[in-house]
From TrEMBL:
The gene is miaB. This is tRNA-2-methylthio-N(6)-dimethylallyladenosine synthase. PROSITE patterns: MTTASE_N, MTTASE_RADICAL, RADICAL_SAM, TRAM. It comes from the Bacteria. It holds the Pfam family Radical_SAM. It catalyses: N(6)-dimethylallyladenosine(37) in tRNA + (sulfur carrier)-SH + AH2 + 2 S-adenosyl-L-methionine = 2-methylsulfanyl-N(6)-dimethylallyladenosine(37) in tRNA + (sulfur carrier)-H + 5'-deoxyadenosine + L-methionine + A + S-adenosyl-L-homocysteine + 2 H(+). Belongs to the methylthiotransferase family. MiaB subfamily. One of its GO terms (cellular component) is cytosol. It comes from Streptomyces bauhiniae.
């Protein structure tokens, strides 16, 4: 039975309060922040203008606990807001996410001006907790030990109109020694396939043409019911949804990556030729210390099978340099895998202690200067490989989905930017006709850099899409809102491109 205290408090739209959500960490947090924004808007709050920088009635920090000095960053930001809160009566500050799940009462002790602390399992309670803190005039700390509601059942304010995250599972059953995520997000819990497909169909009906299936370990999907082929079946089911043009997923784990998934990728036309497969280390010794349940031979075998089935696939990865006990020989094994795998891009991290993980107390911690030197060598090698792989794209004709805000220099260069099927970023000459984010443009690649491609000639074709229509409709609605007309139209959106999304925990 739902009580009045469980319902989101309604905020009088005549005195609508503003909110700002600041997100740190991985793609899970990015998606959770879409839910937090949706919850607040469902309760009557309105988004603060861009660049408000804490000048909102409610500021929410969605935190990450897996980065070094994550807590220092949080308390530094909270400290900067303290005087603003004093000068702005009624302002509220909330802290959620992984660091909140881990530190709990510590946050209010260190920053007593915080009004609400909530965890990864009860993000749906945010509006209620804010109202309770306002009424009772004291901080509300509520951390659930297990998931209260699957996040996808919550309201959502998505960030764009042509693509969306779709969560298929939460939590993780792995025990990697460098990762604290399972302790903070819990054991893996899979969502029902029918619910996933229903959400995708609803998004497509709203104009979305690209979805990214999201999970801490997406290809372990089905472990709840003992179906090892559940993920490949899900990919194939996505292929039958009319109007869904692009399907991506992140992040898989080599342990659970099976041949049926490769076959589904190759045989389902709207599953994109892109794979993000975390390596972490090329050394069997280090992989064992990390408690990664695969070895170099197994990893390279997967890459070989993917390339055989999908020759143009772009494969990206995560690598940790300087894990405790890593020798020069171990590091050279990582360099060897990078040379053999020919990653399109590698997101490389210097190992840093994550409090609460087994690796943090391991012997053989590597001196900072050694880690830095190895990191620089690996980055230099990968830059060379990325450039060589991108040069192979020159002369190819590609269909790009036009992106919003991904080309920082587009205005100065009179270009637009888009994503190729394999997720490579391509900057292209702006066509004479109108092109909207979500539309599809066909171009020929003329130049390659390590991290992007250029198509300097005229567009070969422009296809206006329902996704572009949705972007146009959303833009019109937001313009009307700024003018004071509340249309109440739904906001749908896009996940950050992979390079941004994987800059979080990198623990898959």
């Amino acid at each position: 039975m739902t009580t009045s205290s469980d319902r989101s408090p309604a905020v009088d739209v005549r005195e609508a309060k503003t909110y700002e959500v600041r997100t740190y960490g991985c793609q899970m947090n990015v998606h959770d922040s879409e839910r937090l924004s949706g919850l607040l808007e469902d309760a009557g709050y309105v988004r603060a203008p861009e660049g408000s920088d804490g000048d909102a009635d409610v500021v929410v920090f969605n935190t990450c606990a897996v980065r070094e000095n994550a807590d220092n960053r949080l308390y530094g930001n909270l400290g900067r807001l303290a005087p603003r809160k004093v000068s702005r009566p009624g302002m509220q500050i909330a802290v959620g996410g992984c660091l909140a799940q881990k530190d709990r009462d510590t946050i209010v002790k260190r920053a007593p001006w915080v009004d609400v602390v909530f965890g990864t399992h009860n993000i749906g309670k945010l509006p209620v907790l804010l109202e309770r803190a306002r009424v009772q005039e004291e901080a509300q700390v509520e951390i659930a030990e297990s998931l209260e509601a699957f996040p996808s059942t919550l309201p959502t304010r998505r960030e764009s109109a042509y693509a969306a995250w779709v969560s298929i599972s939460v939590g993780c059953n792995n025990t990697c020694t460098f990762c604290i995520v399972p302790a903070l997000r819990g054991k893996e819990k899979d969502r029902r396939t029918g619910d996933i497909l229903a959400e995708i169909e609803a998004l497509v009906a709203e104009g979305v043409s690209e979805i990214t299936l999201l999970g801490q370990n997406v290809n372990a999907y089905g472990s709840d019911i003992g179906d090892r082929e559940a993920f490949s079946k899900l990919l194939r089911a996505c292929g039958k949804i009319e109007g869904l043009e692009r399907v991506r997923f992140t992040s898989p784990h080599p342990r659970d990556f099976t041949d049926d998934v490769i076959a589904a990728m190759a045989e389902t036309p709207n599953v994109m030729p892109q794979l993000h497969m975390p390596l972490q280390s090329g050394s069997d010794t280090v992989l064992k210390a990390m408690r990664r349940s695969y070895r170099q031979e197994r990893y390279l075998g997967i890459i070989e099978k993917v390339r055989a089935a999908i020759p143009h696939a772009a494969i990206t990865t995560d690598i940790i340099v300087g894990f405790p006990g890593e020798t020069e020989e171990d590091f050279e094994e990582t360099m060897k895998v990078a040379r053999e795998a020919r990653f399109a891009q590698a997101f490389t991290f210097q190992y840093s202690k994550r409090p609460g993980t087994p690796a943090a107390t391991m012997e053989g911690q590597i001196p900072k200067e050694v880690v830095q030197a190895r990191y620089e060598r690996l980055v230099a090698l990968q830059e060379e490989i990325s450039w060589e792989e991108n040069k192979k794209q020159v002369g190819r004709t590609l269909e790009l989905m036009v992106a919003e805000g991904e080309g920082r220099k587009d205005g100065a260069t009179h270009r637009l930017s888009g994503r190729a099927p394999d997720n490579r970023l391509v900057h292209f000459t702006k066509p004479d006709e109108e092109v909207r984010p979500g539309d599809v443009v066909t171009v020929e690649v003329t130049y390659a850099a390590p991290h992007h491609l250029l198509a300097e000639g005229p567009a070969l074709a422009v296809r206006r899409t329902r996704a572009g229509d949705a972007w146009e409709k959303r833009n019109a609605a937001e313009t009307a809102e700024k003018a004071g007309v509340m249309l109440g139209l739904p906001k749908i959106g896009v996940p950050a491109p992979l390079p941004a999304a994987t800059s979080g925990c990198g623990c898959d």
